[in-house]
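Notes from hallway chat w/ T.B., transcribed later so I don't forget. T.B. wanted the structure written out for a chain they're using in a teaching module, and asked if we could keep both sequence and structure tokens in one place. Agreed to drop them here.
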Amino acid sequence: MESATGIVILDFGSQYTQLIARRIRQQHVRSTIVPCTISPKDLGKLRPAGIILSGGPSSVFDEGAPRSDPAILKMGTPVLGICYGFQLISHQLGGTVRPAPHREYGRAQLEIIVGSGGSDGSRLLRSLPSPLPVWNSHGDQIVKLPPGFRQTGKTETAVAAIEDPERRIYALQFHPEVHHTAHGDEILANFLFEICQAPADWTPKSFIEQTVASTRKTVGDGRALCALSGGVDSTVAATLVHRAIGDRLHCIFVDNGVLRQNEFSKVSAMLRRLGLNVTGVDASERFLRKLAGVTDPEEKRRIIGNEFIYIFEEQSSRVFEEQSARLGKVEYLVQGTLYPDVIESVSVRGGPSATIKTHHNVGGLPETMKLRLLEPLRELFKDEVRRVGADLDLDPEILNRQPFPGPGLAVRILGEVTRERLEMLRAADAIVDEEIREASLYESIWQSFAVLLPVRTVGVMGDQRTYGYTVAVRAVHSEDAMTADWVKLPYEVLERISNRIINEVQGVNRVVYDISSKPPSTIEWE
């Protein structure tokens, strides 16, 4: 009999689904996300050491609420339900679930019930302090446990942890995967190693080996294009696929007209130093014509996403027209899509999560495409990609680059994208970059940039009245882009940035600093 391979997570639409997978990988255990509708037969083929039912935005009472096959709970494989997964387990196994009088969202205190059903006897919650700060997000609650279960934890308002150790089914009302839950990693480790005895064999090196092998199998004798931006994500994706298929990968770097100052020439030179086969395409006029008059951020993203695909498809025909018969047909488009892009745009693997905003290379793709997508990093976070890049021996100059959105400055100009506004924002953004680097803060900050607002204010320069634009400066700390806190930049750095922008950028007379965190805000303004 083949040994178990890792943990399989059933996606019920939680924004935190991949965060569960990430926490598992941090403990060197393989994790796979599948739709909650997977059949027990197909789930069994994955040979899971354990199964996790994720959270989700639905209520078990909602019409069309996501369901998993109840037979999964009878497979004999250890199961952990989280939030919605907790309620679904209770609902399917004969417990009583009802809407809570008050939705419980945010911090709560978990009291672990000691004795026969608590920390003394529960392998999931063993050796944990009580009370324990946890993070909740639910509108339903359990009022009657399913037969065979015992309660192991509670908050002030709800049953918070239950288990049936004989059937090896465990469930938590709170989210152990988020940082706000104290000792969450220990809870997951108890499930992984104490209950599931999962093998700890996932590393960036094993990810590289697995991805290279699967890419070779997928592409076969064919060819692929890679949409390169020069950022960490697309560069790591290109390097992985190049390792798999060599010169049958052709990289395209498109100037979409909304890049930063001198970005096209700098990035083109950097990419060629990597030994990648790169073609630069200046399509700036084309993109700016499409964006003219557009103010809605979702429409901007859709336009840019569509136009990128059309260009790549044109390049696949043009660049390889003479070579394709000899070297294979161009069938695939490689993108450096990461999980935070996916979860805000569409649900992972067809799950029922909500759309926050459409990322140009996910939800912004046209409905019909000649090229098939190849996204080797789709289930990773930025810091995981950087670790993979380090194992690929990529230069720190590349690995330490701050994220830059695929739609570029188009989503940092609120309102219509015009040449005048682009020039203002490029100049302001360059100043932010220079001053952050000069203060030796660049690598310690997740992202720092300028945003041009469609707000004009009265000012005075040289005893003259001005009526200029406002620039917002944004700097955030983050680990994975799922949450972010604003950076408390030193006053002297903010002062230099403000003085330089107002004095050097024609048309701007006011600078403000964004002190919003994610959530409730997003990192980018659009």
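Follow-up for T.B.: Residues 297-319 form the longest helix (23 residues). Might be a good example for the class.
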